[in-house]
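Lab notebook, design round three. We kept the backbone fixed and only want residue identities now. Task for the bench partner: fill in a sequence for the structure below.
Input structure tokens:
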């Protein structure tokens, strides 16, 4: 495996900036959900680091659940919006105040499909919190209630986001230099 130093073209968002933003989002969410039942839903796997930090910044009691999807795109890094549920939520969300926690919204197709699916289950409310928003790439309008950072159209990794399933553990958001990156051979 390559060390990330070999293909990191820049650190887009350093660790401290991420941590500060997550704390800020946690405060806003705590204020908005005061006296309300809050249920965080995280889509595996990219949102996991964000979720676990965000939870620690939310001061109102809340529960969590996970779902996993695979999306079929025209290429490895293009989501088409055709998603397949590979792991469903454990708990029923009917009547709950659901906040979907996402790592990144790009074209918006994935989020549109997931929101459509969750809406059929009749939550009391359904909102979206994304750490990153590649707003200029949007192909379909999608409602986002809480945004960490609007980022340019660059392929990023770290803090939950992967390159071929690796490097999610890095505490910052980095930009990959595609010319210097070699995908794993397994
Ligand atoms: P969308 O359906 O909005 O186009 O795609 C969203 C999904 O594409 C994200 O959940 C994420 O899995 C993937 N994605 C989009 N941009 C990036 C990126 O810059 N880096 C990584 N690692 N994944 C991305």
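Proposed sequence:
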């Amino acid at each position: 495996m390559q060390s990330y130093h070999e293909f990191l073209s820049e650190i887009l968002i350093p660790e401290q900036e991420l941590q500060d933003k997550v704390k800020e989002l946690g405060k806003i969410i705590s204020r908005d959900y005061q006296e309300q039942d809050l249920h965080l839903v995280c889509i595996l796997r990219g949102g996991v680091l964000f979720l676990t930090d965000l939870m620690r910044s939310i001061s109102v009691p809340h529960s969590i659940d996970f779902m996993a999807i695979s999306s079929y795109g025209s290429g490895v890094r293009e989501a088409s919006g055709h998603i397949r549920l590979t792991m469903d939520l454990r708990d029923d969300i009917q009547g709950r105040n659901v906040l979907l926690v996402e790592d990144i919204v790009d074209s918006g197709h994935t989020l549109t499909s997931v929101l459509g699916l969750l809406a059929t289950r009749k939550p009391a409310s359904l909102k979206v919190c994304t750490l990153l928003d590649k707003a200029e790439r949007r192909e379909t309008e999608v409602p986002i209630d809480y945004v960490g950072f609007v980022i340019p159209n660059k392929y990023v990794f770290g803090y939950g986001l992967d390159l071929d399933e690796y490097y999610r553990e890095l505490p910052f958001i980095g930009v990959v230099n595609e010319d210097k990156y070699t995908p794993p051979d397994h």
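Keep this in mind before ordering anything: The mean pLDDT is 95.
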